[in-house]
Structures are given as C-alpha cells and as structure tokens.
Amino acid sequence: VQLQASGGGLVQAGGSLRLSCAASGRTVSSYAMAWFRQAPGKEREVVATINWGTITTYYADSVKGRFTISRDNTKNTMYFQMNSLKPEDTAIYYCAAGVSPTSPTSWYHYPYRGQGTLVTVSS
Predict the structure, then answer these.
(1) What is the DSSP string of 34-70?
(2) Which uninterrupted H or E stretch holds 95?
(3) Cα angle vertex 40, ends 20, 49, to 5°?
(4) Are 47 and 60 in contact (CB under 8 A)?
C-alpha cells in the first residue's frame, strides 16, 4: 500500500485547509487510517483516527471541534478538513493506514505511511 498525502500549504490563522490521502496498490477500505503531525522540535503526535467502517473516530483534544476526519472508500482516499487553523497547528501532517492496529493512536501500529504534507499557519 502506498499513501500520498496532499493539500498542505500556507494559510492565515482562522483559515481552512483540506488534506487528502490517496491510497494505491491495494484497497484500504478494511483498514483503519489516521492523521499524525510533527511540529518543528516536537515529537510526532496523533491528530485523528478513523476505523474502516467510518463509524469510530478519535480526535486529539487540541483539534476537537475544528478538524474532521473522513474517508471515501470508493475512492480509496481519506480526507482531513481543518478549520479555524491556529499557528500551533503548523506541522508536517502524515497519513497512515493499518489493519486493525492494536493501538490506533500509536504511529508504530500503522505499517503504511505517507510522506507528509506541510501545513503552515501564519498569525
């Protein structure tokens, strides 16, 4: 499975961006998927996860109410709508996929990972 993240860019605080994560090589409809981010000088952290059936989602407290994770299994693609962006949201955003990860919020439980897309939020 190859994952390609896109949609990052430079945006002013309060603005919005929509990230996409396109999967290829195999259908990921039965996979759990997630978005992680890593800010300069900080450790990588989970931002949101979604299970294969799109029923169960998880959001980090820092993004609840502002970001929405979704997926379209017919397009083999996951999305991340980010609204009300803040400068502290600046980071490289990575998408990841895995079959029933034991710990859905752990980077190491997702064997398939995209290359990352940079999101920069100016104040």
Answers:
(1) EEEEE-TTS--EEEEEE-TTS--EEE-TTTTTTEEEE
(2) strand 91-98
(3) 35
(4) yes
* 108-113 LR contacts (CB < 8 Å, sep 24+): 110/32, 110/34, 112/1, 112/2, 112/3, 112/23, 112/28, 112/31, 113/3
Contact 121, 11 (CB under 8 A): yes
Q: With 90 as the cut, is the pLDDT of residue 100 above it?
A: no
With tokens 């990052």, the residue in question is 8
Nearest partner of 95 among 68, 114, 77, 81, judged by Cα = 114
pLDDT band at 52 (very low <50, low <70, confident <90, very high): confident
DSSP state for residue 82 in the 8-state scheme: E
Contact 12, 119 (CB under 8 A): no
